[in-house]
Amino acid sequence: MNPKTTALVLIEYQNDFTTPGGVFHDGVKDVMADTGMLANTVATVDKARAAGVAILHTPITFAEGYRELTGNPYGILKGVVDNSAFRKGSWGAAIADGLTPQGDDIIIEGKRGLDAFPSTNLDFILRSKGIQTVVLGGFLTNCCVESTMRSAYERGFDVITLKDCTATVSREAQEMAFTHNFGMFSKPMIHTEFLAQLQ
Q1: Among 97, 121, 146, 158, fewest CB within 10 Å belongs to which?
Q2: pTM exceeds 0.90
């Protein structure tokens, strides 16, 4: 795998998920512990960055009052609004300390929904950098990670999902995503398998 045509896309590694006191941390902390996702992601980012892989952060943020959303949100976005999560400029919306963007990292702005592509310039940046392989990690495994994975697959990228760099709200949902869905739209692997392929 050529690092120069590979991008590691980090989805919503923000305090509201990653850190005690975050709005949704209690919901994901058990699966985070099961997968070791934060430590695995930090190790992956450090080694991938050193190898020349593009590091792209895709946080989700909303203005106060969530004006970017419909007046009647439902599903997971209703949970975001009801819990005042991911407010722009807040501690909860900030990227977790261990993954603070560095040097040539790129922060993708404008993510307002589940899939990291539609409301951002992610596709433009990937193509302008000549990226062929998109590697995914983040939250939630069966929501934003899966939505972004499907879009990347449909857009013709070679997609890898890092199983031990993801987390969601239950062990059952985590396993179901990998057992039934991820193999259809990506090449699921653990982070050490990915790093071993970088040349």
Answers
A1: 97
A2: yes
